[in-house]
Amino acid sequence: MWYWKWHLHIREELLPNDNALLIDHQCRASSWSLSISLNHGPPGCSDGVRAHRSDSDTHVEIFGYKTQGCRKALCIAGYILSCGLLRLVFYWKPAWDVWANCIPCGLHEADVTLLRTTDEFQIYSRKKVTWISVSALNKFRPDYPIIADENSLINKAIMKPDLKVRCIQVQKIRYVWNNPEKQFQKVGSLEDSHTCSDIHTKFGSGLTREEQDTRRLICGPNAIDVQVLPIWKLLIKEVLNPFYVFQLFSVCLWFAEDYKEYATAIIVMSLLSIALTVYELRMQSLKLHRLVKSHNSVKVTVCRKKEGFQELASCQLVPGDVLALTGDKALMPCDAILIGGGCIVNESVLTGESIPVTKTQLPQADDGRPWRTRCAEDYRRHVLFCGTEVVQTRADGSGPARAVVLRTGFNTAKGDLVRSILYPKPMNFKLYRDALRFLMCLIAFATIGMIYAVCVFALNGVKAGEVVKKALDVITIAVPPALPAALATGIIYTQGRLKKKGIFCISPQRINVCGQLNLICFDKTGTLTEDGLDLWGVIAAEGNSFQKVHRFTSGRSLLWGPVCRAMVSCHSLLVLDGKIQGDPLDLKMFEATNWVNEDLAKNGEFTPAVIIKPGPKASNVPVEGIAVLHQFPFSSALQRMSVIAQEIGGEQQVFMKGAPETVAEFCRPETVPSSFARELQFYAAGGFRVIGLAYKILQAGKEAAGLTREEAESDLTFLGLLIMENRLKAETKPVLEELSAARIRSVMVTGDNIQTAVTVAKNAAMVSQTSQVILVEANELSGSPTASITWKLMEETKPKDYRDLVSASWPASRHDTYHFAMSGKSYQVIAQRFRHLLPKFLINGTIFARMSPAQKSNLVEEFQKLDYIVGMCGDGANDCGALKMAHAGISLSPQEASVASPFTSQTPSIECVPELIRQGRAALVTSFCMFKYMALYSTIQYLGILLLYWQLNSFGNYQFLFQDLAITTLIGATMSLNGAYPKLVPYRPPSQLISPPLLLSVVLNSLFSLCMQVFGFVMVQRQPWYAQHNIHSACGSGNESHVENSTSVAPTGFNGTENAALREGVDNGYRSYENTTVWLLSTMNCLLVALVFSKGKPFRQPAVANVAVCALVMLGHSNAHWVTGCHLSVSQLVCTPIFWRISMMLMLLVTFAISFVVEEAIIENRALWTLLKRCFRYQSKSLYKRLQRMLEQDSAWPPLNETVFSETRVIPMGESRAAYSNPVFESDATQGDAQDKAAAGPCFKDV
């Protein structure tokens, strides 16, 4: 019997919630489109509604129910008659509560809804339909829209003439009933159907006071409120945990059987566990509450229609309000669209990078498209996200910077981040699922023992009450409540070891998953390579050719010209607090020019133009300075940025900087050198990061503010290439070689050039120098609905003129091993047009370049679909979605964006990856060891009790106490102390509890223990000194006095029994020779089994290194009074001859030897199980293994130098599955298309 709590789930919950479970992962952002389909409902429900994301496989079903009075009355009667047990069951099973109290109905008339996830968890949650009355606000005309925007969801939700709104709340998000469309829709954000012109005209002048009050009542307050539950509520929730209910049942049974000492010990330990858990929950909730507290106490200035600007608390903001942004630094209390002026924002809370971001106002163009569709992937440059810091603002001609509130409360980017903490994604690791299955097997095993106990005691005339108690006692013995705790113990210790290594974990359940990782995706810049870039040189283009390389290390200044002007002006650097801040690449480029950026900000506001002037060390230039008039910010999806600049007293010019291939597309073809591709490939092959530069002179009379990005970025002149050196980190190559030796795949996912990525992969040993790299290019054919895909070997020749750059050796011929390399554009085309080929590419895909954040997340998901256990290691900037999607995301960023990642390394080095895998493997093996030990411990005790039941006997109070507390508790606390083995072996530990080796181990050791106990039980009865009713027959004279003393304190046996001992007039209680023999054998067997199961190499430190377990085994033997036989009264044993004690020792040694040999020679013999698999032709069922076997037999794959055309059908590429990727903040190249389908936002529809 064990009394530890499974702390793992407690830590994952973080905070109690109102039975809200998984809907958040399916209905998180306003940009998601939901489709509706009929579905068979749960028992008693004829039909249901399935609401699901259109771009994923995850669904949520909602069913309507109406409460029925007679059913509710019957349930109340059941609560009373069952003394509250039925109510407790309904508390655990909310679906049963709904089915018992309600009848199914349509959603339009339901007062209770039942939500069910359709993933493998099938989790139900009950939500009550509530009413909001708006009649008290004002007297509204029944024929007049309450909200000025007639198409607003709020107008559609208000029922007339009652002026009421039906709503449900799911994971902090409110859904209101849309009466015309008969569906629940999310409220708390502006509708996505608004055009740019709508936002300016409908909301530009603010809302009326009446409309603000109405929106506030229906949408709720703008608050990210994390409730801190009172301690008494936490106590009640904890006590009602099924574990403690089972403990209460056990304690009551033990008190009834007079097991007072053990029951008292369990109560004490349970109270300590409850107190510790409540304390942890309280501290975690307080910490999160303090984290978001500042959000709810911000003073803001809003514009009210016809009333002007007013100051109010941020919690009173509603979607549609107009915020006035002054020059002071301030945290954004909501998501808002900038409609006037400009802002500089620090978004490190969301991106992990403390790089200022420039925000520009939403254009007023009216082309009929929704604003996000029109802005496409650039929509984020107009949005100020909640939780980010507004560093500087810029007024425009009509007043201060202004923004329309887009989303409030938990609908915002920060609210979404907090909800991901409150409602984490459940883990479906096989270990935990198999543990529950095995628990069911133990319950069935206990049922057999109960039947046996009833038969034995009933046939011997024991009273019915005693029979029931003894039968129920079998359950508390055979079913170890410690099984969940046994699986969590190793995780707790591992979490502490990881913390010492500088690796912090916010999702302890994923530690065991790390032990199964077989594929790791790495970001490149800042992860595999150094974060900072060094400016190596620049190659100017003139005419149709490149000029000589200008090396900045030579000490010569760059001559004044278009290239120098581009380097001086085309960046996003800002002067904040007297220091230039911005992207490291921009910083290195700007510093090479020796120019300075003037700080013209006053009172937190910045001027419309940024002035840049030559510094003291700058070369002589014919201009006084350059003014940057307008900026088109850099976008990961666009892979470029542009500025409109003007020399002081000169003409206006446009400068562009970005990926060379992208920049070249915007240039006039005659200005791009003919050797562009060859030159780019050469430098990229050398591991350099290459940036393209271009410019054009604007026609006189054109205003910079009036130019669109499309107009500015057209007909450019190509200027040249900027060469940045990005060195590998010193630890990168050794780590990747270690992972390769351990047969763990490494994949590079980067936004850099594909040739640069290939070179870095080769230099880092991700791709061996003898392997072929096959470039996969997929394109959509212009003017045609089809697409093409081409395979070709990457050119890897190197001109002799550049031998001093980078040393590398290329293979002369094709090798058996090959790796695919592709760009993000090709990946997207393959995912949409060549879906059947995508798994084949992923099997050997190693380099993925020019990948957008959404494509990174999708790639991780596709690997998971092939049954890979995927890890992701990135710097937390554009990798948040992939970090959360992966089975184990490891962030190297210390910023708050690491909240999106289960693991965060304090040291920005990929050395944390093999360390995490080592610790994960050790934790996983420890969980198996603890599982086997706990299962066998219960089985050993169970078998011993059933043997003694044959004589109507059992273990005594102190015997149970010694086994359960003095031995098993300490074993459970110390067996996990083995650290991880320092070397990663080329195979993983098993992932299933229900596997032949483990089951065979438990079964064989159970049989060994049974044989030993039965042998001892039978042999002790055949000893010449044995007497069934005289427990002093074997004692010598030296022990007589002690026996007399011990007899007086012996507990009584089974009350009311008429066994042979009572007929003889002697009641020895539990004390007998059989009891002494069986108890000593079972107790010592538990200790020895701990040694057998305490595994060492190849995943953990050797068992002898665990001094605590070894010392405990030795101490347990000495304390069992095994040799001297002293203090028998405490342990309720009888004195036996030394010969018999030696005989029992031999039995134990033989059993230990057999168990050890079987465990090492059979159970842990990897070669033997591999041979058996071959004999039975067993092959892995993992999809990637099956694909590998198939491709090995396909001689035509890969088809080199071939082009294949697709069918016309397009398959939408999903962004993510059920993981959190902060879609409110996400930048996605495909989101624009999704917006056309998602104008209504997430909904639950009636049918």
UniProtKB/TrEMBL annotation:
Pfam families hit by this protein: Cation_ATPase, Cation_ATPase_N, E1-E2_ATPase, P5-ATPase
GO molecular function: ATP binding; ATP hydrolysis activity; ATPase-coupled monoatomic cation transmembrane transporter activity; metal ion binding; P-type ion transporter activity; polyamine transmembrane transporter activity
Keywords, sorted A to Z: ATP-binding, Magnesium, Membrane, Metal-binding, Nucleotide-binding, Translocase, Transmembrane, Transmembrane helix
Gene3D superfamilies noted in UniProt: Calcium-transporting ATPase, cytoplasmic domain N (3.40.1110.10), Calcium-transporting ATPase, cytoplasmic transduction domain A (2.70.150.10), Calcium-transporting ATPase, transmembrane domain (1.20.1110.10), HAD superfamily/HAD-like (3.40.50.1000)
E.C. number: 7.2.2.-
Biological process (GO), any one: intracellular calcium ion homeostasis
Localization terms from the record: Membrane
Domain of life: Eukaryota
Enzyme class: translocase
SUPFAM superfamilies xrefs: Calcium ATPase, transduction domain A, Calcium ATPase, transmembrane domain M, HAD-like, Metal cation-transporting ATPase, ATP-binding domain N
Swiss-Prot/TrEMBL catalytic activity: ATP + H2O = ADP + phosphate + H(+)
Mode of membrane association: Multi-pass membrane protein
Chief location category: membrane
CDD domains hit by this protein: P-type_ATPase_cation (cd07542)
Record's keyword annotation contains NAD: no
A GO-annotated cellular component: endoplasmic reticulum membrane
Transmembrane segments: 262-281, 435-459, 471-493, 934-952, 958-977, 998-1020, 1076-1094, 1103-1123, 1138-1158
Domain Cation-transporting P-type ATPase N-terminal: 186-259
PROSITE patterns cross-referenced by the UniProt entry: ATPASE_E1_E2
Keyword Glycoprotein: no
PANTHER family cross-referenced by the UniProt entry: CATION-TRANSPORTING ATPASE 13A4-RELATED, CATION-TRANSPORTING ATPASE-RELATED
Protein family: Belongs to the cation transport ATPase (P-type) (TC 3.A.3) family. Type V subfamily.
Protein name, as recorded: Cation-transporting ATPase
